[in-house]
Amino acid sequence: MKGFCRKIPALLAFILTPSVALAAEGRIDTGDTTWLLVSAALVMLMTPGLALFYGGMVRRKNVLGTIMHSFIALAVITIQWILIGYTLSFGPDVNGFIGSLAWFGLKGVGVEPSSYAPTVPHLAFMIYQAMFAIITPALISGAFAERMKFSAYLLFILLWATFVYDPVAHWIWGGGWLSKLGVLDFAGGIVVHATAGVSALAAAIIVGSRRGYPEEPMTPHNLPMTVLGAGLLWFGWFGFNAGSALASGGLATVALVNTHTAAASATLTWIIVEWLRYGKPTMFGAATGCIAGLATITPAAGFVTPMSALIIGIAAGIICFMGLKAKGKIGYDDSLDAFGVHGIGGVLGTLSIGLLATTAINPGGANGILYGNAHQMTVQLIGAGVVALYSLVVSVIILKIIDWTVGLRIDEESEVQGLDVTQHGEEGYFF
Amino acid sequence: MKGFCRKIPALLAFILTPSVALAAEGRIDTGDTTWLLVSAALVMLMTPGLALFYGGMVRRKNVLGTIMHSFIALAVITIQWILIGYTLSFGPDVNGFIGSLAWFGLKGVGVEPSSYAPTVPHLAFMIYQAMFAIITPALISGAFAERMKFSAYLLFILLWATFVYDPVAHWIWGGGWLSKLGVLDFAGGIVVHATAGVSALAAAIIVGSRRGYPEEPMTPHNLPMTVLGAGLLWFGWFGFNAGSALASGGLATVALVNTHTAAASATLTWIIVEWLRYGKPTMFGAATGCIAGLATITPAAGFVTPMSALIIGIAAGIICFMGLKAKGKIGYDDSLDAFGVHGIGGVLGTLSIGLLATTAINPGGANGILYGNAHQMTVQLIGAGVVALYSLVVSVIILKIIDWTVGLRIDEESEVQGLDVTQHGEEGYFF
Amino acid sequence: MKGFCRKIPALLAFILTPSVALAAEGRIDTGDTTWLLVSAALVMLMTPGLALFYGGMVRRKNVLGTIMHSFIALAVITIQWILIGYTLSFGPDVNGFIGSLAWFGLKGVGVEPSSYAPTVPHLAFMIYQAMFAIITPALISGAFAERMKFSAYLLFILLWATFVYDPVAHWIWGGGWLSKLGVLDFAGGIVVHATAGVSALAAAIIVGSRRGYPEEPMTPHNLPMTVLGAGLLWFGWFGFNAGSALASGGLATVALVNTHTAAASATLTWIIVEWLRYGKPTMFGAATGCIAGLATITPAAGFVTPMSALIIGIAAGIICFMGLKAKGKIGYDDSLDAFGVHGIGGVLGTLSIGLLATTAINPGGANGILYGNAHQMTVQLIGAGVVALYSLVVSVIILKIIDWTVGLRIDEESEVQGLDVTQHGEEGYFF
Amino acid sequence: MKMVSAVIKHYRLDEVRKALLDAGVQGMTIVDVKGFGRQKGQLEVYRGVEYEVTFLPKVKIEVAVPDERVEDVIDAIISGARTGEIGDGKIFVYDLQDVVRIRTGKRGKEAI
Amino acid sequence: MKMVSAVIKHYRLDEVRKALLDAGVQGMTIVDVKGFGRQKGQLEVYRGVEYEVTFLPKVKIEVAVPDERVEDVIDAIISGARTGEIGDGKIFVYDLQDVVRIRTGKRGKEAI
Amino acid sequence: MKMVSAVIKHYRLDEVRKALLDAGVQGMTIVDVKGFGRQKGQLEVYRGVEYEVTFLPKVKIEVAVPDERVEDVIDAIISGARTGEIGDGKIFVYDLQDVVRIRTGKRGKEAI
Ligand SMILES: Nc1ncnc2c1ncn2[C@@H]1O[C@H](COP(=O)(O)OP(=O)(O)O)[C@@H](O)[C@H]1O
Ligand SMILES: Nc1ncnc2c1ncn2[C@@H]1O[C@H](COP(=O)(O)OP(=O)(O)O)[C@@H](O)[C@H]1O
Ligand SMILES: Nc1ncnc2c1ncn2[C@@H]1O[C@H](COP(=O)(O)OP(=O)(O)O)[C@@H](O)[C@H]1O
User: Rounded to the nearest whole angstrom, what is the distance from the C-alpha of residue F29 to the centroid of ligand 2?
Assistant: First the structure.
């Protein structure tokens, strides 16, 4: 206690020292800054959107617990990010593997533009990236919906953000080794969707199937809520992908057009496939399809033409649909299809760059096979493969450790009663 | 098949050729571009908003089918737009009647600014306009809610977008004959609301009333959902109207202020009228009133003063309210009042320009009667009249053709069971 | 009548005279204007967000009545603002106490920038401020949820906006006496949250407890709706706080980062406190915590460092939690905790400026105690104290007058049946 | 006294209510139920997973009547609910030992 | 054994539950219902279209009791539910042929 | 004829339905109810205010059967619903005076 008290002045000094200074705003472009701030807000909204998207899909008794998985990520990861996540991901590079702790607690991160985005305040780039770090672990929560202990979940996202997301973000966006290798990922096909998707697969298997799965019907309790979530996600995704241009203008515009196009074509493809396969096109399918299209175009949004985006969306609709069927065949319970949609979509999109990217769209990018450059595909394969493997291994380790210590799953009786009452002591609806 | 295979290289070449080039961004203004991209996102959100607005009004058994009508327009019309809709609407003018196919598949539509919006990438203008093309047919769906075959609906919106929306958009916004005549329509009173509203009236009559209408009570199953939809629509409408300035600055600001003002005064007027007429002001009335005000101010938003907008809102509240009563008297079943709100509001707003427009607000506009220019009213009457007639005739033709081929309506038993189960094989809620 | 008719030309002249002129847009910055317009849209969305946030918390029978309280403020206060509210708040100063009526009906408020925000159209500043005036009285409605007469409510918000909000906004933001004293309030800790919160306390006591309170269980009927509302509020709050920089750039960025940080830390703190106190962390607690954090950081968002924001959020989580418990002890029925969250949070945030503000963040601000300036705390205490007292007294007077004339409360039988049926003649759900 | 309870299709409720009023019934209670019988449910596919939804939404009416009115009430329900299609529903008649009007405390026939 | 079933106003439920517990009842089942009787519904207007909402929300309680407790239970319900206003509701008493506790398989009175 | 009514846990519904089909039952009606008995509810805290939630969600099944099938049906319900834990639920058996199939107007046993 004495020791702690002696440390208070130092702590205070740290907290109070304004790393932020308002000097030299000369280079800041108001249009670009507005775009990045708006994009940050849009991406933030995706997390409540995801909460509703997932929340509508579970059974009524788990609606709050499921929503909470996304919502609490807003709290936990924001704080992790500001303290250590941002510096691990984007701080000064250490051997291409991780950012140094130089920017711990946002030290030195102020309103001066950074090298990442030279026309906007450094803090704007930081908070924009924070929103990505938040939603990524929340995506995983779909894999073990309706059965995870809340304390285990908190531990999981904290460790996962630190040991999976932050390093991978550094490798690809923070100047790390994969970016030096030339791996392209415009807005997070690898960093967000592949990491989340592969970890989701691991989690679904390690946590185990829901009680009663697959015999007992587990129909979504509120599909309009899921559609609302999908709508907010689509809306927010404009910030996610087009904001990743980190400036307003032509590239942001192309990314936005591609995002919308792929979402549309994946949606249509999905319901056509359903129609052919099951005789009826569903609203749930349309909502799922748009998310598959959005996840798939994410890495490619700033590298391909709108017509290519159209095709990427079609591919997303077909391949993610098939991916979803896999779980039935193989037999794991990826309850809300976090792997089927984000894992498969993220990897598919990453590889689509190797095929369809063109420097005519983005001179900072590369050409794909169809533009005469087969090399990029190899690079993309390496990028996706290494990250998938890394995410898998580290996720398994994290999950196992949690399982041995606090335990991953709620007990049988709690599962029957539902997360809401047993984990949170409250109920979603009193109708 | 052989022939098709031979065509693949050409197809590939077409898809891959980047119509987009990043040169000469000099003239692009980052603030304007940000504004148009944000506006595009806002207008996109209006379609899920509409889905919920309508979805809450129907009976529980039709909630997903109704939401689907809006949602699927996002998919179908986006693709139609990118392939042919945009070039038909805004492509090089052919005799004042239609755009040529020169920009088929976005050929030549890149990041270079267009003449439509000289400070933003052409693609930004294109995608912004796409969002208008999407929501317009979705508006119509309110007229035949709870009884339309899904396949017929898909066909309908595809044909309607191509043969009604695209030509009319060309006439008024794409440099066509009505624009040369001087017809003013700032953000779509004619192009969006009048076309949709009049076609809705045709559709309500041709499709016929719902089974049990008007004896059986058909109360909205979830009004909070409708209010949520109204809130998102109001929010998105700022992009719809103020974005139509196609640049940030004074005109966008005036349009936004007018939009908000008219929405507010129509809302208040509506509940006052209800209060006087039925003894109680309703939440449903307030939600309806705001949409009436928003639809009505749409064409005038960039041409009138805020005080005129206040008055336009009041007129919208009174006249649309009376319009809604018409259906009871005349006896057609415009189930969610697509004609009563959008048709009447759109025409009313279009004519309000003839009365209240002033070049002091928009030098590119005109003066109305109260500013000493009676001529503009004539022009507005012609514009609204011609388009209403055209929409009516073409919609009737399209609907009749669909009815004779695939059939417009679901059968009686399906109507009793609801769209969700019969058209989509799923249910909205498992509570 | 005769007299009135004679006045029509003058009235017409007033309405039609375009106070708006498009000259000299030279100084307008497109990036800044876009930011302010977007922020206005974001803050507008907060009111429907609040409607849902509150709507989910009440019993099913009151859902529409509760939503209506927020929604109708959009209509009523917009018109009040445009006619007299804006000029009372921001019009030319009269003795430091109130704005003159010079800008009645937006006379002279055009697209020329004002002194308040020199790079954006005056009308943009006006409409941005309108959104604040709208949501503030709506916040109060939580205090007397489920029992207020609708006519009384309309009267209340109209009078309250005119006699509490407008003067206080003038004192602090419109160049009035408190601003001259040096009171700092970045985005409305005093002007919005303290005024609303204190008035809420008065209202809860004067209107009296709900029938059956506290014995009868009054659990929230739809918590997912409340979470959706919280998500929209969080999203909109970026416009609320970061928009208050009135320009894009460094200060807006810092405010946005602080807003997000405090929301996150308050959310986490709240559920930890709950966990320790009741054994379970709740989704409802997380949603409440984020609003507490957002309300508390509001006045300080543009004056403190992100690390200070983190601490302010933690303080908000702890102190507002304790504040909520007060009502149980003291025994008034602040049904949705408008005082507990906004009153306490607003004052806490206002005082946090006195402790943590630094001119390194905002040279236009001041230093707090921890930066060596004890004086600012005194000023903040005076500001918060005077406004709290003023709000209390005027609210009591307004409420008493309404009670004596139209009556504040619905009768017992109506309360049992609910607001929806008795005040609005409609029902929220037909499931 | 008897309690006549009927499971019918939702969209016939209004007709049944009217027929019962015409038959002199002065009160009734309804509740949303789900059921199956001859009429089977349907297959619903959620994200490729097929669920057989066995239960269809129905509404149950309960009308307490004096013994002598039972047949009239049954006839009224049939006249309002019959469409001739499968799933029209069933009527169940129970014996009622007693009825109490809470407001007055009156019992038996006059409490109905 | 008897099944005592009562349709009451929602906001009286808590009082009735307490009165029943005081009367020694150890279990009960409730369900949301809608009903009308003396108390009529109201007119509701949705976008200018008037609908008569005939059914008011009520809650139905079911309590299984041994024959000798029936009167106590009726009294308890009345004491909790009566407000003296129209719409207070009704109590219906049915004969119960048998009761089975699923967990133990026990039947009859001791299964209640 | 008898009406066999059972209050069971939601997640046992599917098992019970299957057991009843196996026992030859051709129709049934279910309704969401809430109840308490041995199994008590839980304390829920909303913004620091504690509410005791007494009623737990259950589902009630109703199966009309000819007299001779009652025991089979009871057994089927028990076999499907029993978990051996508190709150498994109860079965109530009522006498049915008559059954009418609305579609055909047929009455009695053959209408079931
Ligand atoms: N044996 C039964 N016990 C209880 N309810 C039944 C029984 N049989 C049918 N029902 C109820 O009656 C409804 C209609 O029965 P169904 O057999 O589909 O129609 P129909 O009587 O016209 O042939 C079912 O949905 C169910 O709710
Ligand atoms: N004949 C009846 N059969 C079934 N339920 C009835 C009958 N009469 C009344 N009820 C139920 O009892 C409730 C209260 O009855 P009502 O006549 O309004 O009140 P009161 O008994 O106090 O006069 C009704 O809403 C309805 O649910
Ligand atoms: N006396 C009763 N009257 C009506 N319903 C009852 C009665 N006792 C129990 N129930 C219903 O049965 C359910 C299970 O009863 P409970 O006593 O919790 O389980 P168990 O019978 O396994 O001990 C309760 O939730 C309630 O719905």
Answer: 23
